[in-house]
Amino acid sequence: MTLLGAILAGGAGTRIGGGKHRQQLGDKMLLDWALAWLKPQVKALAIVGNTPDLSDWRHQVLPDDRRLSGPASGLKSALQWASQDAEADLFVIPCDMPYLPDTLAGALHTPDVAVPSVEGSAIWAISRWPSDRVVPALTALARYPDDAAPSLRQVFEDVAAITVPFAADAAFLGINTRDELDKARQHL
Question: Nearest Cα to 135, choosing from 159, 151, 165?
Fold first, then answer.
């Protein structure tokens, strides 16, 4: 099975002081952590976001779909990109989770759209989309009016995504604030 990878890096990062993807963790920026984790697992990858500096990473950059707002706009762009390869699954991760487990992509390989969950809470920013579910997801997203801001939870409910449980640990630590960045540094 061919796997395409997309990294969501379109958030403004206002709670962390801006430029979340450029925040330093150890010797790498957050986006570098995501690229290093994802690149060996996929045939092709893209960074999704509207920040002009994303091209500095020398990977394909997909702009957020401006007809939606919030993370769903990045997800829609990733799905549109993946729809060009009818044989490939799509794996989506955020740029702000540097410690994802190596088993994640394999554990989410199911016939359904899958997201991880920890202690019963789904982590909507991470997902695996089987190739035959990409186009139906785009159809579901097309039903939202322009400038809508559906939550990722709404999108995943629309496509009847399943959750795959994982143990609670630092692997799913999301970094959205300076305090969370400091907490992540404790795991270096």
Answer: 159
Please report which confidence band the pLDDT of residue 70 belongs to, taking 50, 70 and 90 as the band edges: confident
Q: Provide the whole-model pTM.
A: 0.95
CA dihedral 41, 84, 130, 87 (to 10 degrees): -80
Tell me, what's the pLDDT at 169? 82
How far is it, in rounded angstroms, from Cα 99 to Cα 78? 22
User: Quick one: angle between helices 131-142 and 71-82, nearest 10?
Assistant: 130
User: What pLDDT, in 10s, does the model give residues 6-53?
Assistant: 999 987 788 888 889 999 999 999 999 999 999 999 999 999 999 889
Residues in the chain: 188
Q: Which domains does the chain have, with CATH numbers?
A: 2-185 (3.90.550.10)
Mark residue 17 as left, alpha or beta (left: phi above 0; alpha: psi -120 to 50; beta: remaining): left
